[in-house]
Amino acid sequence: MTDETWSIDKARTVFGVGRNDLHFLDILESGELCIKLQDEQITINEIVQKIKSANGKSPGYVSSFTLRIPQLITYQIKKLRTTFEKVFEELEYDGEFIGIYPVKVNQRSDFVTSVIRSDSEYGLEAGTKAELLLITSVIKKEKHRRIVCNGAKDPDYLRLIRESVEKGFKVAISIESLHEARMVVEHFDPKKTELVFRIKPYLNVEGHWSHSTGRDSKFGLSIHDLYNVVDLLTQAGFTESITTILGHAGSQITDLKSFSRFGQFLTNLYAQLRDMGLTNLENIDFGGGLAIDYTGKHPPDLMYQYARNIVLGIKEMLKESHGKHPFPNIMIESGRGITAPAALVIVEALEVRSVFPAPGGECFSETALTKEEEYLEKISNVTELTDLVDIWNDFHSHFGGMSLAGLGAIFEREMIVGILERATRERLVALGIQSFTSEKQIRSFWHPEHIVIGNFSVFNSIADYVLVQQHFPVVPISNLHVHPETTVRLVDITCDSDGEISHFYLQNTDNVWFTKDKRPLTMPGGMMNDGIPVGILDRLPGSHFVLALVGAYQDAIEMDHNLLGDLPDVELRLREDNTWGITWITGAESIEHLLRDVGYADINVDEDPYMNS
């Protein structure tokens, strides 16, 4: 691919921007990455410069920061409700949509209040005492909102629930064990109590957390416990208190057909429990599971297919009752699907380091030169990809490994290995990589030979990348109009080998597109690879990368590894007059605050721990 064949549309394809869950990002003809809300656009570089100009001398200013966009929460909530209502109309479904936001996904006040402002009926889910206190504080003037209390419950949690009910809050208590049911019977009045049966989902679905489903799930009532709980609550007069059954299929479910089976499963239980006398049962809570398209490989109507499959599953099972049971209201506890788009980490590139010496000006010994020419001839004459792998392994073995040679000899060998690797990639492209079967081996040909030092901490900003290998899209903010020169690894400033993000999803195209140095940018069928494409390597220092879709869970599970705390928080809003408002919320967490958390209260250093660039 030549520069002439490169285009902004190809850049959009490579980085997945402007579509699916990166619909709010776009690339201008100048190659600048921008945020797009409605028809208005603002470049990331403009945001960076405005923050630097207005807050560059503020305490806690860092050249990297987290960008919050609360309006994207509103967008997701409205889209979710509208999607279900559209499916209800299409499939003639006579039930209501009830949205519930699980605050564990992101408890930040700006996120929770954005949820509330977005929908006057939206409910909230608590999994702990602290989360219940948070919720009741936030909605103290809107007590009509539904609160679902999940999680393990001790007497103090139940006391807090009871006090909330007495204050007028609309609280539903999930029952997950016979022990919890006994405590509810002991401490609650059935006439003032709403109960939810949380049931283990006895089916397996495909997703990032599919291990949390089935009989071994840590959540919910086993079927044998369900019978005992029904008997206990019936005898204690709580029959009319049970309004909802809840099942959680897992998070980030990618097999959308699973939701149809899940709908059938929970609807079957719904019908049987009503047949057992629980006639006030009117809601099915499907928990979370709505996927965010981190890779850009899923269909653009992902949310619609999710809603449609759930409703189809319910209707299919209700056919067997011949109208005996009403359509249940559908409750959705999507958290990731609501908040993930609403935060981005903007990372400044501090410097670029290269694995191999730059080509040019080589001065090799005669022996080394002879060996290099021998390998180059072998590479140029290869006709089978398997032979190319053998040559790759052979020259790495010959020139690699531990060495006691002098510095000059090591430099010479590194120079030759770099030359041979580049020649191998050229030949690999000529032979056609589509026919190659060993993905693991071929990926080693493309491993990035440039490292970008970013002013951030993976552990604090995107901890799930390390904890559960969650993929996050990474996009350079400039020179996107240029045919990418190469690919890089983005590493943080922690002293930890896991502190890097290099995964990049190669989008599906009929033919492979390559960087200038013959590393793939796309792949037929799509594939996860290592290496973030960049336009012009020399222009990276002082520029920035965007880590997108980090608004779910990353704030809640951040780690202060190496005493690197929170980056500054910046909020971006599109005003009613279509002008942009950029607000500096907080500076980076200070060293003094971080040290105090680990027991050093007498060290007064009012500085942030990140690099001063």
Structural notes for this entry:
- With 613 residues, the chain is an alpha/beta fold.
- The protein has 3 domains: 3-70 and 343-355 and 449-596, Lyase, Ornithine Decarboxylase, Chain A, domain 1; 93-334, TIM Barrel; 366-444, no CATH class.
- It has 18 helices and 23 strands.
- Strands 4, 13, 14, 15, 16, 17, 20, 21, 22 and 23 form a 10-stranded mixed β-sheet that branches.
- Helix 13 runs antiparallel to helix 14 (407-431).
- The longest helix has 25 residues, at 407-431.
- The radius of gyration is 28 Å and the shape is globular.
- The two termini are 36 Å apart.
- The mean pLDDT is 92.
Q: Under the CATH scheme, which class of the largest domain?
A: Alpha Beta
Q: In angstroms, what separates the terminal alpha carbons?
A: 36 Å
Task: Please describe the biggest sheet, giving its number of strands, its sense, and whether it closes into a barrel.
Answer: 10 strands, mixed
Mean pLDDT: 92
CATH superfamily of the largest domain: Alanine racemase
If helices are DSSP runs of H or I spanning 4 or more residues, what is the number of helices? 18
CA gyration radius, whole angstroms: 28 Å
The beta-strand count equals: 23
CATH topology of the largest domain: TIM Barrel
Shape: globular
Integer tally of domains:
3
Q: What is the beta-strand fraction?
A: 15-25%
Helix content: 25-40%
Poorly predicted regions are: none
- Find the structural class using helix and strand composition: alpha/beta
